[in-house]
Specification:
Helix content: over 70%
Radius of gyration: 28 Å
Number of helices: 9
Order of helices and strands: HHHHHHHHH
Oligomer: single chain
Largest sheet: none
Number of strands: 0
Strand content: under 5%
Length: 180
């Protein structure tokens, strides 16, 4: 009889515990569902996503890099520069943000700043062939064909399948040969 009584008590406790687990589980699902519904508004496009993300996770370097990209697309270059610099301040060796900052400076014709930041991007991201290419293009425009050739050659070495890089390198070499 005591075994049956003990079984009945344990069964009731288990049943109550099981109900509690179900209740907690349902509450968690409802809370996460509500958060998902409100977060859907943030996913209208990539810009609304990054603007809302920075409100809850403002210390991420990738977030600030992406905001810099967004402001650059909006032609808000001061904000773009500020966001890239914030990304670099958070992650001082973040070559992608340095490259993007250089692109922004180039866009607003601040060539010296662009040269500096492309050089920094190469220093911290030596496989970032786009920085070699863009810096090489600047030196080409400045008539510094030797530097341009070196940079395009490095870009081709990193990314040998890019036919445009190879063509640009050949153009530079041809012009360099014609000058001599």
């Amino acid at each position: 009889a005591s075994f049956v009584l003990m079984w009945q008590v344990l069964n009731e406790k288990f049943y109550e515990t099981k109900k509690m687990y179900w209740l907690v589980g349902i509450l968690i699902i409802l809370a996460l569902g509500a958060r998902t519904i409100t977060r859907n508004n943030d996913w209208k496009n990539q810009d609304t996503l990054w603007l809302s993300t920075v409100k809850v996770a403002s210390s991420g370097h990738v977030i600030h890099n992406n905001l810099g990209d967004m402001y650059g697309r909006w032609k808000q270059y001061d904000k773009s520069i500020s966001e890239y610099k914030t990304a670099i301040a958070i992650q001082p060796n973040y070559a992608d943000a340095m490259h993007n900052l250089a692109n922004t400076y180039l866009e607003i014709n601040k060539v010296e700043e662009a040269i500096y930041w492309y050089s920094q991007a190469i220093k911290f991201g030596p496989r970032l062939w786009q920085s070699y290419q863009n810096l090489g293009a600047i030196y080409y425009q400045l008539g510094e064909l030797k530097k341009a050739e070196e940079l395009f050659a490095q870009a081709v070495e990193i990314n040998p399948s890019d036919e445009n890089l190879k063509k640009n390198l050949e153009i530079i070499r041809t012009q360099k040969a014609l000058k001599h």
